[in-house]
Design a protein that fits this description.
The chain is 31% helix and 21% strand. It is α+β, with helices and mostly antiparallel strands. The radius of gyration is 17 Å and the shape is globular.
Length: 122
């Protein structure tokens, strides 16, 4: 038990994304899923249910920063807060699944941040 505690204590926390996401390179996928088809019904349901305020707009933009390891694994996803945690986390899960084994090009030389996002309309 002590060995497990020490191993967990020694693990370095993953870094936070930089403040300026616009400087991050875009995440490139070999095959990009149809995010609108996957997410719009859920997001619209959250908005219609009053759990995701949009100020009367019929669109939501979701931006995410992803930390990709030198082995090509996604280590961390940080959604930009849009005052709708369920949609933020749903988007992170969809992008996590889409990125698994689907990154285009070579993995970065070291752990690196990338950006992606989508706008959903209804």
């Amino acid at each position: 038990m002590i060995g497990l505690f020490l191993a967990l204590q020694a693990a370095a926390p993953t870094p936070a994304p930089p403040a300026d996401w616009s400087a991050l390179p875009p995440l490139r996928l070999t095959t990009t899923p149809d995010y609108a088809a996957l997410m719009t019904p859920f997001v619209h349901g959250e908005v219609a249910g009053g759990r995701c305020p949009t100020g009367g707009k019929s669109a939501v933009t979701i931006d995410l920063a992803l930390l990709v390891s030198k082995t090509g694994d996604v280590l961390r996803i940080v959604p930009r807060a849009i005052n709708c945690p369920t949609v933020e986390q749903f988007a992170a899960g969809v992008v996590q699944k889409a990125a698994r084994g689907n990154l285009a090009g070579a993995a970065p030389a070291s752990d690196s941040w990338y950006r992606t996002g989508m706008t959903l309309n209804w």
